[in-house]
Amino acid sequence: EVQLVDSGGGLVQPGGSLRLSCAVSGFTFSDYYMDWVRQVPGKGLEWVGRIRNKPNSYSTEYAASVKGRFTISRDDSESSLYLQMNSLKTEDTAVYYCARVRGTYHSPFDYWGQGALVTVSS
Amino acid sequence: DIQMTQSPSSVSASVGDTVTITCRASQAINNWLAWYQQKPGKAPKLLIYDASSLQSGVPSRFSGSGSGTDFTLTISSLQPEDFATYYCQQANSFPRTFGGGTKVEIK
Lengths: 122, 107
Hints:
The complex is a heterodimer.
Chain A: E1 3-7, E2 10-12, E3 18-25, E4 34-39, E5 45-51, E6 60-62, E7 70-75, E8 80-85, E9 94-101, E10 109-112, E11 116-120
Parallel strand pairs in A: 2-11
Antiparallel strand pairs in A: 1-3, 3-8, 4-5, 4-9, 5-6, 7-8, 9-10, 9-11
Chain B: E1 4-7, E2 10-13, E3 19-25, E4 33-38, E5 45-49, E6 53-54, E7 62-67, E8 70-75, E9 85-90, E10 97-98, E11 102-106
Parallel strand pairs in B: 2-11
Antiparallel strand pairs in B: 1-3, 3-8, 4-5, 4-9, 5-6, 7-8, 9-10, 9-11
């Protein structure tokens, strides 16, 4: 059974940092691209970024709203995905989901974590 | 960035009804469109990909169509478990973008 478990959310002050983790099981993690998507409670979905797999040099893509502040990484040996969030702003408050990319470039997200709530507030 | 516009933003329907949701892209995206269902407090669930391909395990009452800029999600014979919010998402280019969502409510 495919499982993605998000963790690491919490309350952080503006300007602070937080690292989210996504532990996966049930599939060969190293084969897949992985994304992060966020959602302000009660609002719509916003794509955050992507990390590709080793054959694609672990290359990354980011939304303009987080570029330069957020970093996506992965540890294939631990089947884990990470989102390092620095210089956090109040507008980064959201539930953050990790998501598996079904195939390659044009593929959708076929499995999602349960989400981790990040609250940025003083 | 490609803007995705969904309509309506909400719809009231009864069990057994057919519901149609539309999604328009601000530029052509071929058929690189997905539809997701989200229930309160849960992660989104993939329903349709490549505009019209049904994800494994999704009931056949869900169907998708369209290409280019205009797309449709149809739910035939609405069931109680289908009351949820639906989102479209383009997978043509970065940044990936989602529609604003359509809430399907019980009439």
